[in-house]
């Protein structure tokens, strides 16, 4: 295999290896989604989940121990007080409207029972009656983040509050954090009253489901969710600090810095959403500060992620793209500290489009990189594609158009893990390359003298090769000179005779009609000889250039032998020469060859007529065909009982214009091209031809050709 073939083979191996890695990445995405869906399981049985209707949900047939937890989804009773006048349709500010509403759902995207759409800012009271079988022990409610303050009562008793709820913005204090409350299930009904106030966020209401179950199941769900967030948070922090350490050790690797920032900003965002661990750990961090941290981390994660891919793929992502990303990120972050949370949260689409736009640029760049088989491009492409899907999911989820969970942290984590693997692989490859080069340098130092001797020997062999090439060029030049001389001689002799005949006819030197006819016939014979010579030269040049189109057909060996026998046996009998044909097909009774039979007839005509010319009367010409049990090829030989070939001439008999008669007199017969043409035709069929002298006298020509499958 040549260098081009090796490169092509290597590219194909790299291409399929990248595809396999991409498939592994897709499998990892599927496993991640299964993991997330597993963490969000709301029940453990196949029983249909009841839904609330008109503020009542019937769970009397629900077993807390066997069926697990159940979401309190459905239509709740609802009392609404708008944050601005006119929102209720009554035209009276702070007028209480009693209706129903579907839970979960944000206020601005939900339609109440009376058909009026409400605003996201205001005050609302949710009420639900839960009918259930009496339960010995504690039941529990898992309340998610509610925008942006709430007070929960169970059977009229306050059991949980987040922030301060009020009928106006001045009376409310926003705060978001999930909660678990416990209550006795001794009675067969439980009344829930959830007061919610929102004057500070673009979306108010209950975004995700409130679930109820016994203590064990609710505690298990909270533990799973907390473990899930802590595992992701811990992974992000470890990966981030690790790559930051790599950057500190080697400042030239800007990709490590951008990657570390990406991990740390994503972990910072996770710390203030969900369970809100960062808010719990830092007491002075209020809701307004936490949501600003969330948005800053969101923007900076997109900026650092784009900067990372810009550093890794500088040819696909231009410098001005990173400059544009930096400018937009600066403006978006500045807005966060100038306007109120209600304003910038209402512009969430701008922040999401910022992330989506630059993620799309990276996605397109990675597609081009993957097509160029750049290292790690396929894995990065899978990671960015997964990230874009989670961004779209969260855009729909936070806009209230999609029932889901916040998947962006997990999409970022998946992307970070894949790129961390790529960077680790690159670092490992760098170290391996350094170690390999160190070993090679050590070996070269230890074997320098041996290498010098080897190079000297190679130079001597190269010199010998050059000498041989020089001699070959001299031989070719001599052959070319001889070829020109032979062609000019073979053309000049008949042309000179033709000129003499024509002058004799012109001067009436030949006046006798019989002699005149004889002369004309001689001239025609010379012209035909010239035509034959020119045709042979043309055929040989075409064959040597491999510009011949063969008309191939499958010929059984027995049929081929019969064809040769019919062509030459009768003529040999007339010349008093014996003819024998032998065929031996060992284990291949139906053996065939794929040949252009017309051109192969020309090969055998040259060989057989040479044999006839050198075989005396009473001699024997033998044609034999043979197959071999261990080889997929056949051999055909033509032998004669003549005087043989001079050993000095054997190496040259297949050269063009070669004749034993060095005087090259044309009367000796033949152009000297027949065996050259025969050799080219045989080799064009994928075979070989050779000649030798027989021990008992005479010569033999052997043709070896492949058998057809």
TrEMBL record:
<keyword id="KW-1133">Transmembrane helix</keyword>
<keyword id="KW-0902">Two-component regulatory system</keyword>
<feature type="domain" description="Histidine kinase">
    <location>
        <begin position="486"/>
        <end position="709"/>
    </location>
</feature>
<dbReference type="InterPro" id="IPR036097">
    <property type="entry name" value="HisK_dim/P_sf"/>
</dbReference>
<keyword id="KW-0597">Phosphoprotein</keyword>
<feature type="transmembrane region" description="Helical">
    <location>
        <begin position="255"/>
        <end position="273"/>
    </location>
</feature>
<feature type="transmembrane region" description="Helical">
    <location>
        <begin position="377"/>
        <end position="401"/>
    </location>
</feature>
<feature type="transmembrane region" description="Helical">
    <location>
        <begin position="230"/>
        <end position="248"/>
    </location>
</feature>
<dbReference type="InterPro" id="IPR011623">
    <property type="entry name" value="7TMR_DISM_rcpt_extracell_dom1"/>
</dbReference>
<keyword id="KW-0812">Transmembrane</keyword>
<keyword id="KW-0175">Coiled coil</keyword>
<dbReference type="InterPro" id="IPR050351">
    <property type="entry name" value="BphY/WalK/GraS-like"/>
</dbReference>
<dbReference type="InterPro" id="IPR003661">
    <property type="entry name" value="HisK_dim/P_dom"/>
</dbReference>
<feature type="coiled-coil region">
    <location>
        <begin position="431"/>
        <end position="486"/>
    </location>
</feature>
<keyword id="KW-0067">ATP-binding</keyword>
<feature type="transmembrane region" description="Helical">
    <location>
        <begin position="320"/>
        <end position="339"/>
    </location>
</feature>
<dbReference type="InterPro" id="IPR004358">
    <property type="entry name" value="Sig_transdc_His_kin-like_C"/>
</dbReference>
<dbReference type="InterPro" id="IPR003594">
    <property type="entry name" value="HATPase_dom"/>
</dbReference>
<dbReference type="Pfam" id="PF02518">
    <property type="entry name" value="HATPase_c"/>
</dbReference>
<dbReference type="GO" id="GO:0016301">
    <property type="term" value="F:kinase activity"/>
</dbReference>
<dbReference type="Pfam" id="PF07695">
    <property type="entry name" value="7TMR-DISM_7TM"/>
</dbReference>
<feature type="transmembrane region" description="Helical">
    <location>
        <begin position="293"/>
        <end position="313"/>
    </location>
</feature>
<keyword id="KW-0472">Membrane</keyword>
<feature type="transmembrane region" description="Helical">
    <location>
        <begin position="351"/>
        <end position="370"/>
    </location>
</feature>
<feature type="transmembrane region" description="Helical">
    <location>
        <begin position="407"/>
        <end position="424"/>
    </location>
</feature>
<dbReference type="InterPro" id="IPR008979">
    <property type="entry name" value="Galactose-bd-like_sf"/>
</dbReference>
<keyword id="KW-0547">Nucleotide-binding</keyword>
<keyword id="KW-0418">Kinase</keyword>
<protein>
    <recommendedName>
        <fullName>histidine kinase</fullName>
        <ecNumber>2.7.13.3</ecNumber>
    </recommendedName>
</protein>
<dbReference type="InterPro" id="IPR036890">
    <property type="entry name" value="HATPase_C_sf"/>
</dbReference>
<dbReference type="InterPro" id="IPR005467">
    <property type="entry name" value="His_kinase_dom"/>
</dbReference>
<dbReference type="Pfam" id="PF00512">
    <property type="entry name" value="HisKA"/>
</dbReference>
<keyword id="KW-0808">Transferase</keyword>
